[in-house]
Automatic annotation (TrEMBL):
Molecular function in Gene Ontology: transferase activity
Keyword terms of this UniProt record: Transferase
Domain of life: Bacteria
PANTHER family noted in UniProt: E-CINNAMOYL-COA:R-PHENYLLACTATE COA TRANSFERASE LARGE SUBUNIT, SUCCINYL-COA--D-CITRAMALATE COA-TRANSFERASE
The species this protein was found in: Nocardioides immobilis
InterPro entries linked: CoA-transferase_III, CoA-Trfase_fam_III, CoA-Trfase_III_dom3_sf, CoA-Trfase_III_dom_1_sf
The protein's name in its UniProt record: CoA transferase
Length: 400
């Protein structure tokens, strides 16, 4: 994306993640922020969500590599400067609601009036049409709760729906989809000359993630899709088991007739191969509770450290259930450069997961996020403003 300029008028995480991904792919992304408050995500540093004296990781995540330009879009001067920047851009990226876009005069017709060939990309909670088009939302509501993910991953015995596994879980997935869609729109424009509008939403992303489950629920007319706990997995070879040191191993050996002899031999219970209850996939499904119990008892005999070299000899897929901090030291993650080592503007080192795709065998360039308004002067000079004009705009409050 070298040579592509993106003007982003967005806040929080979902849509800004799309801009962040494009910076790793080479785009110049101009993050437009209010001169006084900036992106509300910056305020998390005072909300206890950032370690004292640490890096504002939840701002770094969706704003890596961008240039921050602080403009008051409600002022005539600020709006005029935004339109000048839009005139130089290939993509306009926003998550403002329809009424806010109209009020700020940044809707499609406003933007296309100064740049007819720009890709106009919107991200929202629940889409641009329908009764909830003006409603805001976060990934916990629109992605996780509304699409059935929460209800489907929560064991019935728990008594309540579980929350997301971590912050911005749905946001980063939705941002990835939106960045890919913008790339497709740019390719379409290059081939045809037509600039299109791109729309994505957290609701659409969550429904897509649940695609198989939603299709199955409809096909079988089941309000609640079948769920299972580890003690009664339908296929005992697609399950999670506890080791002696309270670690867990997840197996996904779908072809159970192929992998059952290998697995049971490795676990030290080869007698299960010919056990009449378990000597076929159909019988293991019928006697799944007993089969799960037999495998659970075997796994409980050794610690994970003892099991690891044994499991590495298997052809079937398995994985250690890791904690997030362990991922940082995962040798496969390190070998493939999936996590970047960075320093923030004050020089404090931190780590950030890189974009999940690579080109020509190399990761994209991951850079720190900008300070509030860090590049305002630089960018305005690029579009022809003199330092005297910039100072006057600062005095008026139109820029930072």
């Amino acid at each position: 994306m070298s040579g592509i300029r993106v003007v982003e008028v967005a806040a929080w995480t979902y849509v800004p993640v799309a801009g962040a991904l494009m910076t790793e792919w080479g785009a110049d992304v101009l993050k437009i922020e209010h001169p006084e408050v900036g992106d509300p995500q910056r305020g998390l540093v005072t909300s206890g969500l950032i370690p004292a004296g640490g890096v504002a990781h939840m701002f770094e995540l969706p704003n890596r590599g961008k240039r921050s330009v602080a403009l008051d879009l409600k002022s005539e001067e600020g709006h005029e400067l935004l339109m000048k920047l839009i005139a130089t851009a290939d993509v306009f990226l926003t998550n403002f609601r329809p009424s806010a876009r109209k009020k700020l005069r940044i809707d499609v017709e406003d933007v296309r009036a100064v740049n007819p060939s720009i890709i106009y990309a919107r991200g929202s909670a629940a889409g641009q049409e329908g009764p909830d088009a003006e409603r805001g939302g976060y990934d916990l509501t629109s992605f996780w709760a509304r699409t059935g993910i929460s209800s489907n991953v929560s064991p019935d015995s728990l008594g309540y729906p579980v929350t997301m596994p971590g912050p911005a879980f749905g946001d980063v997935l939705g941002g990835l989809a939106l960045a890919g869609a913008v790339s497709t729109a740019l390719f379409h424009r290059e081939r045809t000359g037509e600039a299109v509008e791109v729309d994505g939403s957290l609701l659409a992303t969550g429904a897509w993630a649940m695609g198989g489950t939603i299709a199955g629920a409809y096909a079988f007319n089941q309000k609640v899709y079948p769920k299972s706990t580890p003690d009664r997995a339908p296929n005992p070879l697609v399950n999670t088991y506890r080791t002696a040191d309270d670690r867990f191993v997840t197996l996904v050996m779908l072809e159970s007739d192929r992998f059952w002899p290998e697995l049971t031999t490795a676990l030290g219970v080869p007698e299960l191969i010919t056990d009449e209850r378990f000597d076929s996939h159909a019988k293991r499904g019928k006697n799944n509770v007993e089969a799960c119990a037999a495998l659970a008892a075997a796994f409980a005999e050794k610690t994970y450290t003892e099991w690891e070299p044994i499991l590495e000899t298997l052809n079937g897929a398995w994985a250690k259930v890791q904690h997030p901090l362990e991922v940082v030291d995962d040798q496969q993650v390190i070998a493939n450069h999936y996590i970047a080592d960075l320093s923030d503007a004050s020089g404090t080192p931190f780590k950030l997961v890189s974009a999940p795709v690579q080109f020509n065998g190399a990761p994209g360039e991951t850079r720190r996020s900008p300070e509030h308004g860090e590049h305002t002067d630089e960018v305005l000079e690029e579009i022809g403003l003199s330092m005297e004009q910039i100072i006057d705009l600062k005095v008026s409050g139109a820029i930072l």
